[in-house]
Amino acid sequence: MKLGFTAADEVFRAEVAAWLAANLGGEFEELRFRGGPGDEHSFPEQRKAWERKLAGGRWTCVGWAPEHGGRGLSINQQVIFHEEYARAGGPGRMGHIGEGLAGPTIAAFGTDEQKRRLLPGIVSGSEFWCQGYSEPGAGSDLANVKTRATLDEAGGKWRINGQKVWTSLAHESDWCFVIARTEAGSVGHQGLSFLLVPMAQAGVTVRPIEQLTGTSEFNEVFFDDAETDAANILGAPGEGWKIAMALLGFERGVSTLGQQMLFHNELEEIIAIARANGAAADPLLRQRIARAWSGLRILRANSLRMLSGPQDGRLQREAMIYKLGWSTWHLELGKLAMDVLGAEAELLEGGPYQLGRLQSMFLFSRSDTIYGGSNEIQRNIIAERALGMPREPRVRG
Fold first, then answer.
1. Which residue stretches of 71-171 are H helix?
2. Residue tagged active-site, from 51, 83, 251, 318
3. Is the pTM of this model over 0.70?
């Protein structure tokens, strides 16, 4: 595990910081520190323009191999980029799902034709992706998906019917990667396929889901005889589970360090407020702030350990604890923020429902331990896959 950076790495850090300082201003100034979790509804068109600005500077997909349009940066340099991006207040990435999830999965499992056709749009910031995994009856239990797809061989199309839910930014996306059951009568992990589906068609309906924050980052997506070309399948029919699990491995990638820098920004804001309003004089609050500070550094150390392993989609044991760790930590940070704010936490900045940044963070953090695999499921994964303990008994209705 590498805990430090070389002199060459620090030169690269200065290059990243200088580019961001020169470009994250002017028309993009209002985007600074905006568009993160709980705020993803903000400035979508401007953030898409920012993706194109990043692409112009070759700052999208920086870890991708050069043959796929990336810079092929080392793990150290990728960590530096994501940290400096968050430190500068870079806005939430509209292209995150394409760059961090869809792209690496297509690069790993796609045909040469699929790579030539689909990867350039991600690199250029001109095509955006969403994730069609969860369903009303298959949230953390992905193997229970009911969405079905049948191949019309004569027409050369997959026809898809079903519903996905909690689909982030589906209303802003051009493509959705969809886990669907393509083998009639199959159950569990068997008979699933990984399909790439265009969103701009009559058979796709997107309905927003309003959150506690009053915003609608998430959506329901309905597929009613939606179509995608027969060639838009990753791997072979029935290999969807294997590819879906590899994608979740890519999700535990270097962007986790950028996420932690966002957490650092939130913690620094809480500390500044505590000093200004006198909450820092409370010994119990000081102790909780200290625990938050040390907990964030533990998350960083474990992430660096996780990133020292292969970055090929395999979920290493170190990676299996990450989601449980950060979601629990961030949940407690939201509570700490409200306690430091005191009575001000109960007051809105304006009407009809204008939340402050920490208020929005607190409310959105209620979902951290649910989305992306609930804490209960994460503990099962750690016990069964990392520690080799007996599987939890499955009760069949």
1. 75-87, 96-97, 103-109, 112-123
2. 251
3. yes
